[in-house]
Every structure is written in C-alpha cells, then in structure tokens.
C-alpha cells in the first residue's frame, strides 16, 4: 500500500517523504506518435506554467495559508460548474479532519491565482461508509475571492463520466510532495478491472493523489486514486472508472446552493 506516500503530507498522519527522480521511460514506443496525439508518451516532466495547468492546484491544511512551501499533501483541479466554484480530487484526500485550502497553479511557495478556502466537501456513500476503492473520487466547493469564483480566474475542465477507458490518451498533472512545482505525463490508460483504470507514468509519487486525467478535449475522465489509493509504485497509477456514482456525486455538488 502507498497510502502515506501517495497522499503525502496529511495533518493527521505521519509523513514519509520519498525522493522523486524524474527519469523518462524512453522507449521507441514512448517516443512514437499515436493516432490520438503526438508523443512522447510515458514521460514525466515539470508542467508548463499558466494556461490549462493553472486549473490544477495543491491542497493544504488551512494552517499553512501563511507558509505554503513544503505543506501540500494532495492535488485537485477546477471543473466546470454553474457556481464556478468546484474542484475535484480523490475521496481519500478529503476524508480527514481540519479545514483545507486550494491553491491553483501553485509553484515554489507562491499562489499566483490566490488561496481559496474549501467550504464544503462531497464524498460518495461508497467511500464515506466503507472506503470502497471504487468510490475514491470527491468534490469540494471553494469560496469566492473578490466576488469571483475560482473558475472565473483560472477556467475549468469539464467533468465527464461514462468515457471508455483508453479511448484517447490523457495527461495527468499533479504535485509530488517532495517538489514545489507540478509535474505532468501523457499516456493511454488501460483497464485494470471493470471499475478501475491504470496508467503507466514514472515518478507520480506522494502528493499526486487527486490529479486529474484530462483528455485532448479538455475533459476530466479520471482522478488519480482508487486502487491502493493511487497505486503501490510511483510508476503505475490508478483511477476509478468514472461511472454512475461519480456522475450522481457531480450532480449533487453542482445542485448544492
């Protein structure tokens, strides 16, 4: 199990930080073009700042608001919603105690798009009642800043359930807890089981739980978590196959006043 290292720094749990080595898995396959987009595939590197990457951010305990560096423990991302105030992450990132903040586009101790307070959390029954790994996805509503929602500031990807696993390549962007910048990797998911999907990307270690899996249409079709809370190694990551439960949870989160 990689509970601690995948989640990263949790206020309520001890931390065992891992050293992240961004070593590309360079093979002829990873460098080749695919029918759904150019390579290289299966290579993890620092994500480019700004643009769509700004929608991905780090989660912190609220007590870190004045000192962000070294304090993030999970990843989340902004998804489109009527309230323009919604982020998606893994359920195991939100099931602890204590107030949280979300920092989109976080880099090197700075919050280029502000610090956003988490006001409400939405966890599926399967996770809340039994920590079912097939229910490891969750949403959080964040408060406004200066009269604006977080989506007004950084934009948001559409949350889409029911997409066939591996229909297209996806890009996973997240925050390893041993780094102060986000990393990103593109590859094509494969089925692990009828309810779980997996992706081969190196160096997605502690703190990357909750990272969005975004396809070429800008849709979130996976969230790093699920099996073994994201995986037992840094090189293979998992996501719940987003189905009926995830779609209903999204509807609940967006319908909440």
UniProtKB/TrEMBL annotation:
UniProt entry tagged with the keyword Signal: yes
Per the UniProt record, one Pfam family is Trypsin_2
Q: Which domain of life is it from?
A: Bacteria
Amino-acid biosynthesis as UniProt keyword = no
Write the signal peptide boundaries.
1-32
Q: Which InterPro entries match?
A: Glutamyl_endopeptidase, Peptidase_S1_PA, Peptidase_S1_PA_chymotrypsin, TRYPSIN_HIS
Q: Which UniProt keywords apply?
A: Signal
This protein is called what?
Answer: Trypsin-like peptidase domain-containing protein
Source organism per UniProt: Streptomyces gilvifuscus
């Amino acid at each position: 199990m990689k509970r601690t290292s995948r989640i990263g720094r949790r206020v309520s749990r001890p931390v065992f930080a891992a050293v992240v080595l961004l070593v590309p898995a360079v093979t002829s396959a990873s460098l080749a073009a695919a029918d759904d987009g150019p390579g290289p595939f299966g290579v993890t590197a620092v994500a480019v700042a700004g643009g769509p990457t700004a929608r991905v951010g780090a989660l912190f305990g609220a007590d870190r608001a004045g000192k962000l560096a070294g304090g993030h423990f999970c990843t989340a991302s902004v998804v489109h919603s009527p309230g323009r105030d919604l982020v998606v992450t893994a359920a195991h990132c939100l099931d602890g105690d204590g107030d949280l903040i979300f920092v989109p586009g976080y880099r090197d101790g700075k919050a280029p798009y502000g610090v956003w307070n988490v006001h409400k959390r939405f966890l599926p029954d399967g996770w809340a009642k039994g920590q079912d790994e097939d229910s490891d996805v969750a949403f959080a509503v964040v408060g406004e800043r200066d009269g604006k929602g977080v989506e007004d500031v950084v934009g948001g990807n559409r949350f889409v359930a029911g997409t066939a696993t591996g229909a297209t390549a996806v890009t996973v962007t997240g925050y390893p807890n041993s780094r102060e910048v986000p990393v990103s990797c593109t590859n094509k998911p494969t089925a692990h089981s009828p309810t779980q999907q997996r992706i081969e990307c190196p160096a997605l270690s502690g703190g990357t739980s909750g990272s969005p899996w975004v396809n070429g249409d800008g849709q979130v079709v996976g969230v790093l978590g699920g099996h073994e809370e994201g995986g037992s190694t840094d090189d293979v990551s998992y996501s719940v196959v987003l189905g009926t439960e995830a779609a209903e949870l999204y509807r609940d989160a967006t319908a909440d006043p």
